[in-house]
Input
Amino acid sequence: MSRHRMKTVSYDDDDDYDDYEEDDGYASPDPEEQARLEQCIQDVLSQLRGGEPSVSASREEVTEALWHYYNDVTKSVNYIRGKKAKEVQKQPPKKGTVSSYPLPPSWSSACAVPFSAAEFFRDSPWLNVPEHRKADIIVEPLHPRLGLLGGAPEAGGKVSKLAALAAARKKKESEKVAASPSPVPTPKAEEQKPEEVGDNNNPASAPSRSLLERLSSSHNGRQLKPAEGGLGGLRALGKGSRMGGATAPTKKSSLEKEAEIRAQTKPGSVTQPAKGEEKETAVPQQQDEQQAPVVNMMASPSTFATIIVGDATRPVAAAQSSHLKVQSVDVMDIYGQDLTEAFDFAGPSPDDLVLNAQSSAKGFKSKQPASKSKKVDLTGGMNNLSVEEKVSIKSKNLDVLSEYKKVERKKAASFVVIGHVDAGKSTLMGRLLADLQAVDARTLEKYRREAEKIGKGSFALAWVLDQGSEERARGVTIDIATNKFETDKTAFTIVDAPGHRDFVPNMIAGASQADFAVLVIDASTGNFESGLKGQTKEHALLVRSMGVQKIVVAVNKMDTVEWDRERFEEIEQQISSFLTAAGFQPKNISFIPLSGFHGDNVTRRSEAPQAAWYQGRTLIEELDTSEPFSHALEKPLRMTIADVFRGGVQSPLSISGRIDAGSLQVGDQILIMPSGEKASIRSLEVDSAPADWAVAGQNIVLNLANIDPIHLRSGDVVCSPASPIQNLTSFTTKVLAFEHLMPMLVDIHRGRLHVPGRISRVVATLDKGSGAPVKKRPKIVAPGAVARIVVEMDQAVPLEAPARIVLRAGGNTVAAGLLES
Amino acid sequence: MRLVKNRIEPTGSGTVTLCPEEPEDMWHAYNLIRPGDLLKASAVRRVTTTQDTGSTSSLRVHLMLEIRVKNLDFDAQSSQLHVAGQIMNETQHTKIGQFHTLDLELNRNFTLEKEVGANGEGVGWDSIAVEMLKDAVDEGGKRRAEAVAVVMQEGLAHICFIGQFQTILKQKVEMSVPRKRSGGSDHDKGMTKFYQVTLDTLLRQLEFNTSTTSLTGNDPVKPILLASPGFVATGFQKHIQGVASTTMPALKRLLPSIVVVHSASGYLHSLSEVLQSPSVKTILADTKYARETRLMDDFLEQLRKETNRATYGMREVESAVDQGAVGRGGGILIISNRLFRSQEVAQRKRWVSLVDRVRDIEGGEVRILSSDHESGKRLDGLGGIAALTTFPLPDDEDFDSDEDNTDSPPVVTAGMVVSNGQSSAVY
Output
């Protein structure tokens, strides 16, 4: 109900407003009323002329008066007479003014001019109403009076500062016009000036001044400013030309021009708020009008109106007299806001700017477009706070390859740690990291305590890499973990792979990120043998078939066999023969007896007397001998996504992986396959440190923008949109069979990517050496044979030759090979 | 399926009236009805009549229509069979030769007529068709247990219903689970979410009543097999237990029927491993698909060990049969029923005669595998037909060269069916 009432009220307001507008413009077409009005006007005019003293008034003045007095002829006559009399009284003290107020002869002709708004408003009551009359004029205020603009009435003797400023401004404007024909300054303006300047310079003297006041005063200063630079500034030129145009024309044309201005100022309630301000300035303004009777009969639109309506109503201001220039203080420097500039509200409000800055800081997409070119100076500081819209990430357009060559860096290598389950891979790597201080002692101590609490004290070192809760509870590595450490020569990336046969897919993902491999073997009785049958063999074959050339065999748990040299040699002999058969060159195989748990021969030489027989390299020394590996930097970008995760508040969507080929930089567009979606790189990290670019071989984290996470899965391939990778549903591959191959269902693995598929056809078995077909269309391919097969998949998968793929079935690796087409 | 009326003549022609009673019967109907057969069933047909004034009115009429089958469309997901063909009987609303698509419905009789034409067109009720009919009406009355299997791995779960004759992938759950990272618990959170989504999906597919009142009710719950590599299935079981003890007590009814099995991967073809695991075998005992799975394993084992005593592929098997290798004393012909669904009459005849020959003349054993099962899928990979032979066949290559032209090579057909926007494969 109350809402309804409110609504009604507001409608009423509107009605009133409309009425007012209508009356104001005399738009009422009622002929009777018109006739009556005409009669009244004639009456008043005749009474004015006939009365003592004889006063001449324009038809418009009369009409206006009549309107205000509801067509009461007597009251109107009195009002006009009083007004005119006052004007006459005020003239004498003015000295040095060029012209006097008395109406020029053209007045009558002006009356003859067809009705114009300019005529009508020229001396409208709010411009030159006598002070004592003011209260009588009741024009329905549509909006609350802007009290802040008002101030104490002039009659109180002390003019409010704002009023004084406004008055001074008005005067200046009229002076500008007046001064152009005769540059004699008005004394009145001079006495006003010091006060104004003082106010501007000393805001403290007016502690209660509102911001608006200050703004208006600053505006005042600004108006003066262009003149300082003479006509050099473009704006000053514009003003000058406008001024020229304003002074030259005849009265009629200038009146018309003002009429236009008025008309533009008029719409809506614009002039209403200004009224309060202008009332105060009524008296000085009147003087101004008298000073410049021909050119500028009326005050230019108020500052407020100018601001609201825009540049078009910029006062026909003109060059200031020289003394004004001197005294004009660049208030811009103080408040930094130019309100004379039309404020079109195109830019965001200060509130918006703050909200934008806040929301973008929170990582949300800002809905507001960034501030446009027309910046408001006051808010310039806040503009700097706002974060760039995420949609457009500036690329630095670096030449990544030349950048890469410029940078002096340690050689980098990554290796994968493989071996049978419980061979001690994670523990060995934990030991390595702990001894190299890559993990601090406190964390280690914490792990040790927690591991003992759940009765797995011997797993404490492995916890450095086994971060998952399930991994810790079960004491088994499930997924690969990457970590890094540096020696004097090399920056290493460890990829700790799981040994359990169920997690071979994860191990394949890890091996695809590695340059060489560390094969960990459990030397203890029984475990070595079972491992050889199990994943020791499978892992070694897998890393070899994935292109790893160098392998370091860490014979672990030597302490459990009392550093038995014979045991070590037995293992060395068995493993090396197997590895040679698998295709590793003997020079790329090295053996180290060590104990990961105790740290013997890992970073320091074993102190155990039984181990004295071993004089070769320790593990860390062996790792350091690795040759630098070259990567395909020049090729188009390829990166297999290892993980998709939420990086944090600042980067809600991140992917990690190792660049297989090519390079990228911040701001690049990348294409994700098989979804075919594009994303842009917001930022990137190389080895957990922010960077601008990255090249093949580096393990990186990309923070993405402009893509939905559903298009990203681990195993997808990132490539450059210019040379995208193709999605295949079928391919031919040359494989080495580890088990019998026939048309069968298999899982296809390539790094993180693994999909179900099937061998649809066995094309031929091939000769191992020459690759020539031995037997076409064999029924079955025996283990150890090389064959060309056709593999089909249900879904399209990003693959391209020469990718190294692994085929698995039933939990076993059945074949590995090279994709041909 | 209930056999209402059986009028199969010794010549092979004749009619059969059947009443499908459960969704799987539609699958049987799909195998029984072949293009060229006459099918009579009740239908709803929209009839448009034009008045003299030119105004048209359409109304739906219930009719008994007989059509000559042209095409079959089987939606395994919802077990719906649509049979398209030309109308053969004149009614007041239809003319002979108009096309109609019959939608077979549960508990509505349909009559199927197969004819042997004078000049050999039409196959009639051949031995395979009769055998299928026996399977369909389940003469022995040995309805076997059904099971629900959830084959999963991190971020991927396949929920499938294992029926007697087909395995239906009901839904695939795929989620991106963040990998483990140092210091982050995203992985655990991701897994919990994945478990919850999988559980919700599973319950929806089971149409499981989750209200607490159902706790007292004792409608039977199918065995639920959870299979995965690693610890995913165990984790899922724990998750279900957790939910049962906290938010959803009705789940307690489900708990006893859950069996956790190991599988090599979360893909559907690991289902064979699931079905072979001892714990599943005890539940599902001697079911058709368990036998079929074992048969395929035996065959593949034979192929590995004694390559020459096993063969696969259409030409190879036919040649083996010609040599008399698939006969008494261990000769087994394994054939997928996909071959009998061939649209071409000649193709069907070819395989039916081969089956008849092995069984009746050679004295070998014939096993027809359902192509909608995991084992049938594996067989399809080998060309849909394979044989264990009684003696080693010479490793001949003479028909290699022309094979590409004459025969379709053993290509696995992907039984992909997409429905409701979810990509699902049907065995």
About this structure: The radius of gyration of chain A is 45 Å. The longest strand of chain A covers residues 753-766. Chain A touches chain B through 50 residues (CB under 8 Å).
